[in-house]
Amino acid sequence: MRAAPMPKGHGRTSKIVRLAVVIAAIAFCFTTRVNGFEPDFLFPLENVTIAQGRDAIFTCVVNNIGGNRVAWIKADTKAILAIHEHVITNNERLSVTHNDYNTWTLNVRTVRREDRGTYMCQVNTDPMKSQSAFLEVVIPPDIIYEDTSGDMMIPEGGSAKLICKARGYPEPKILWRREDGGDIIVRTGTTIKTKMTSVEGESLLLSKVTRSEMGAYLCIAANGVPPSVSKRLMLHVHFHPLVQVPNQLVGAPQKTDITLQCYVEASPKSINYWTRESGEMIISNDKYNMTELTVSYYSAQMKLTIRKLRKSDLGGYKCISKNSIGEAEGNIRVYEMDLSKPRTPSEDDDDNAINTFNSEEDDYENRNTGRNSSSNSPALKDQSHRLPRSSSDKIRYINSVMLISILIIMKY
What we know:
By secondary structure, the protein is α+β, with helices and mostly antiparallel strands. It has helices at about 10-35, 345-370, 390-410, and strands spanning about 40, 50, 55-65, 70-75, 80-85, 85, 95-100, 105-110, 115-125, 130-145, 150-155, 160-165, 165-170, 175-180, 185-190, 190-195, 200, 205, 215-220, 230-245, 250, 260-265, 270-275, 290-295, 300-305, 315-320, 325-335. The longest helix has 26 residues, at about 10-35.
């Protein structure tokens, strides 16, 4: 079958329609440029700072996109990442979303250090329009354990150098503190000593170390990216044991309990025990109770309680401390206090009067002779000016004075 012939004038009409469409498109483009309806960015692209391992998001808002396309580009490498909604680069951690209106989002999942750089949102207008932002990938601090000191042991009076290193971005700063909050003693030269609550730097130098500087030191690394991290280093200072006895003579009545005390300082940690002066070691039982209280890293308090004191318990006791460097001991003597003869108030008064009087005499002698009261000075042989010491002598003295006075009156 032959096709029906086209009516006359149809080809001419099609040409006119096509010409009208072209003219309308040109007019639309011209109107868009004149009235400012070409693509433009509604908001600037914002810089992103994020910790390594988290997700970074860039949001690009373009108005009047028309038939143009939005592309994402890594500016420093000039790599095209995505066009419109399609990821171009071979990176499964990248994705692009479009809300079907004017917003395009680039999502970088689990960012790495190599993702750092400038990202560009570009519209393929003529000339091209774009805006860019920087992705900063920060890394929390991390202690480099293979380059950091461990626990350390030095003799008292020696020196110690503690080293702590950390990685991260920005570069972490190292701060040293004592775990117990005490001061760190920094010595410079031979005489200058400075007490500091903290010291900054990768290394901490301690010289002429004393036992009081023993303890835990914290190396703290921080770079403004949470969390900060720290490592604990223990500084052990070794020295010969030292025993101190607050009371070397302790007394109590029979059938009462009595407690003996010693204070021990030693490092390394010592073995502490009690003996009688004969060398017999004391063990805990119904008669004896021994306790030990830790005071600090290097000091402890030893206590020995003797229950129901008897005659056989009297005598000497030793508290002994031993470590790998040496040993030390303290001696305590236990005696019986006799409370069976209480003093009467009158006896106490007489004694007090005598003691007071003697004290006054001594003061007088010291002032007038310039000698100690215990010296034998000839000036003290004539003691006729002194008052009698006992109450009966005082009465006789007063009676004698009164009798002499009466006799004198009667004579005249």
